[in-house]
Amino acid sequence: MLDLIIAGGTVVDGSGAPRLRADVGVAQGRITAVGDLRGQPARAHHDATGRIVCPGFIDVHTHDDRLLLGTPHGPHPKLTQGVTTVVTGNCGISLAPLLSATTPPAPLDLLGADDWRYARFGDYLDALQAARPALNAVCLVGHSTLRVRHVADLERPATPSEAARMAADLADALDAGASGLSTGLYYPPARAATAEEVIAVGAPLTAARGILTMHLRDEADAIDDALREALHIGRALGVEAVLSHHKLIGQRNHGRSVQTLAAVDAAAAHQPVCMDCYPYNASSTMLLAARVGQSSEVLVTWSRGDPSAAGRSLFALARERGCTPEALVEQLAPAGAVYFAMHEDDVRRILAHPLTMVGSDGLAHDAVPHPRLWGTFPRVLGHYAREQRLFPLETAVYKMTGLSARRFGLADRGMIAPGYAADIVVFDEAHVADRASFEHPTTPSIGIDAVFVNGHLACEQGRTVHAHAGQVLRRTTKLGPAYSSPGLAT
Ligand SMILES: [Zn+2]
Fold it and tell me: How many angstroms is it from 332 CA to the middle of ligand 1?
């Protein structure tokens, strides 16, 4: 007997194919049948009449390393959007492997309160599995985390022996089930690293067929060089290269996505490469004076120097206090910010590109976070697909499911088809929308009816029903990007 039938809905299967009317049958955490299941017995029915039924969304770009360890209270920022799998450890920043009694340098502090107690990456994966996360987790090792651990002076490239120690940590992590490596050469702890260092550290990726996600060294004036460097690293290692949150920052770089996307297309003919992006024309990261000068507006998301600044405009606050924005940056640090520095045309062009997946880049521990944390996926469905008609709904879903699963080697996720894990979202195509704004950034989205994680109803009408249905998806074979799911709970 089936555990569940999701009946009467319209299936958008995650492959990009046109929708079809079908029921979906689930047993033991897996999709077992797609078609006319009327009259079939099942322990539970979910009426999806008039609704879209699609694979659970895969948030390929997150910093949820620590968020996943906690038990969610109240609405969950990701489940309420229909997200069922997150990729952690992006931008060079991962919670493991690092032992530290003190706060490591920014931007590692974006991962929230100090919790640097995992000597090996496998210890973190074990802790995550024991915590039974709300969503499935695919975990990356951060190059900056490895640098903080092994490089004596972060202002210089790693010595050969330091690079060898970082590579050994990565190999150990891949053996334990990490999916790959992330880099953030833009950020202070990794700025001094050369491409050669990343290639030396990333060497274990090649045999393990791990993935490499890269926050480029520059997303502004020097974007061309930064893009060339990232493509070179991917080629040298012979692995899938993911260009993280692709964007063009600063007015004089607006419109340059025409050239950067052409460069990605040209590279894609010879090497595996893809991108992710979030559907907003404002970015968010640590508060940096250099980024302030490139922005038309800057909102403070958190500040240890002056917590009362969270949620305020940096420029307005500087005027009030009679100081320059740069001087205020010093007073607020360490801190985080939202930067308005992109052009909408670039956002649309990048989001619509066939190699672009959706990733939120949300920062769950910020006092007043960028709304992408709560709104990314419904915003693509509502604002960009339904209202702006940037692409059909089937394409929007593909960018959040099938494309992402394929690129990250999640062989049994991201599709509504027999044999796939029962990560499923039921939503109202006519009303799905983000509600998180820069003023009210933690307002849950609307129009997401039900979210199933591994066959369990995890979230219904925004309410968390099952907060521990997720699994740690460990990369288990050196022969290819295949993943194992631990025994599916019933
Ligand atoms: Zn980043």
Answer: 21
The CA 487 to ligand 1 mean position distance, Å, reads: 33
Domain with CATH 2.30.40.10 in the chain: 2-53+428-473
In the chain, CATH 3.20.20.140 covers 56-281+341-414
Give domain 282-340's CATH architecture: 2-Layer Sandwich (3.30)
Q: CATH homologous superfamily of domain 56-281+341-414?
A: Metal-dependent hydrolases (3.20.20.140)
Q: Where in the chain is the domain with CATH 3.30.1490.130?
A: 282-340
Separation of CA 243 and ligand 1 centre (Å): 10
Q: Please give the single-letter amino acid code of residue 52.
A: I
Alpha carbon distance, N-terminus to C-terminus of the chain: 13
The Å distance, Cα 394 to ligand 1 centre, comes to 27
pLDDT tens for the 490 residues of the chain, in order: 999 999 999 999 999 999 999 999 999 999 999 999 999 999 999 999 999 999 999 999 999 999 999 987 889 999 999 999 999 999 999 999 999 999 999 999 999 888 899 999 999 999 999 999 999 999 999 999 999 999 999 999 999 999 999 999 999 999 999 999 999 999 999 999 999 999 999 999 999 999 999 999 999 999 999 999 999 999 999 999 999 999 999 999 999 999 999 999 999 999 999 999 999 999 999 999 999 999 999 999 999 999 999 999 999 999 999 999 999 999 999 999 999 999 999 999 999 999 999 999 999 999 999 999 999 999 999 999 999 999 999 999 999 999 999 999 999 999 999 999 999 999 999 999 999 999 999 999 999 999 999 999 999 999 999 999 999 999 874 444 444 444 433 3
Does 2-53+428-473 carry CATH code 3.30.70.1400? no
Cα 283 to averaged position of ligand 1 atoms, centre (Å): 9
Q: Read off the amino acid at residue 402.
A: G
Distance 285 CA to ligand 1 centre (A): 8
CA dist 413 and 406 (Å) reads 9
Burial of 18 (0-12, 13-18, 19+ CB in 10 A): exposed
Ligand 1 center from residue 303 Cα (angstroms): 19
Kindly give the distance from the C-alpha atom of residue 92 to the centroid of ligand 1, in angstroms, as a whole number: 8
CA–centroid distance, residue 21 to ligand 1 (Å): 39
Tell how far the Cα of 364 is from the centroid of ligand 1, in angstroms.
Answer: 14
